[in-house]
Amino acid sequence: KFPHDFASRLDLREDDGSDDNRSSSLGRSAHSDTSDYQDEVPEYFDDIPLVAAQDLTNVLKQGHLEKKRKDHSFFGSEWQKRWCVLNNSIFYYFGSEKDKQQKGSFLISDYNVRLANNLRKDSKRNACFEFTAPGRRAFQFTASSPQEAREW
């Protein structure tokens, strides 16, 4: 009956909400006000425009990686398969290589990257790496092999 009232109390997300602070256009997130939709206005990440995976240029590396969820829930995996693309200045991640817009992106110049074998305890632990920056969210990934992690 009162969808606006009801929606404003909920944390509505486009997918499972594990990749970023996006909210649906139905209401604002109770947890974040930095990248919510506002009346169908396109969403940006660090002032990076939305772009389809297939439209990216100057690609240095692309492929599937597992991304550690920001908000790991009790249900589902802590790691999600993502199509990742690195160009000469931005790291993008998508749900798949066919996605019309990224789930997230960040300027690589703002981050340091390092191998991080402490992120997992399983056989993939030597294929992990992370992007970190003071005062910013860390992004953690697992490649298919230690060699591929070094290439990223």
TrEMBL record:
Q: Where is the composition biased (Basic and acidic residues)?
A: 1-12
SMART domains, A to Z: PH
Statement: the UniProt record of this protein carries the keyword Iron-sulfur = no
Spell out the SUPFAM superfamilies in the cross-references.
Answer: PH domain-like
**Keywords, ordered alphabetically:** Cell membrane, Cytoplasm, Kinase, Membrane, Nucleus, Phosphoprotein, Transferase
- Coiled coil ranges (UniProt) are none
Q: Where is this region: Disordered?
A: 1-37
- Record has Transferase as a keyword: yes
A GO CC annotation recorded here is: plasma membrane
Q: Name one Pfam family in it.
A: PH
Tell me where it resides.
Cell membrane; Cytoplasm; Nucleus
* Gene Ontology MF terms: kinase activity
- Domain (PH) spans 58-152
Q: Which domain of life is it from?
A: Eukaryota
Q: What is the recorded name of this protein?
A: Src kinase associated phosphoprotein 1
Q: Which organism is it from?
A: Nothobranchius furzeri (Turquoise killifish)
> What gene is this protein a product of?
SKAP1
